[in-house]
Description:
The complex is a heterodimer of chains A (about 110) and B (about 120). With about 110 residues, chain A is mostly beta strands. Chain A is built from no helices and 11 strands. Chain A has strands spanning about 5, 10-15, 20-25, 30-35, 45-50, 55-60, 60-65, 70-75, 85-95, 100, 105-110. In chain A, β4 (about 30-35) and β5 form a beta hairpin. In chain B, strands 2, 4, 5, 6, 9, 10 and 11 form a 7-stranded mixed beta sheet that branches. Chain B is built from no helices and 11 strands.
Amino acid sequence: TQLLEQSPQFLSIQEGENLTVYCNSSSVFSSLQWYRQEPGEGPVLLVTVVTGGEVKKLKRLTFQFGDARKDSSLHITAAQPGDTGLYLCAGARGSWGKLQFGAGTQVVVTP
Amino acid sequence: EPEVTQTPSHQVTQMGQEVILRCVPISNHLYFYWYRQILGQKVEFLVSFYNNEISEKSEIFDDQFSVERPDGSNFTLKIRSTKLEDSAMYFCASRKLAGASTDTQYFGPGTRLTVL
């Protein structure tokens, strides 16, 4: 089974700082999705990246898909306490698009 | 904005009992999925469903599991004889169309299954 590795597992920063979360695999994905999950709830979609080298921005969040479509990163600029949460990456493979999830990065932003 | 809904939010059952978890996917979506997440672990793929049949399933999805789309709106996951290790959050997801640009899957809020 190919793995989707997320790093770091846990990130604690002060409000106003920047952070980057990484998602790496040895496999090529047709697309990669980033979700945010609150305790006891379902993953909520943030973005889907499809094209190698693609960069998407969502307010203070910047998502990048690697040129080879094997890795991705999420960068948050000037983090706020509301950014606290579990960030999951999930790669889509195969004809039916099943998702393979990373273990997640728990981000804590303190005021 | 359309969303995936799931019922019940929490189901408690005795080992060996049958449970049915229900999902209403987004109305114009064609691909449906079940995933599960054991407490503290990764979200894991169980099964995908398209055109009224299973398109792909994982090793976890054994003979104890089945899925059905009994009408035009519901999508169900049945576990025939629950085991303690089936305790998990079960998520339903749906996707509109085929193709990488439309790979996006939208998840429901989940059903927490507790097997005693």
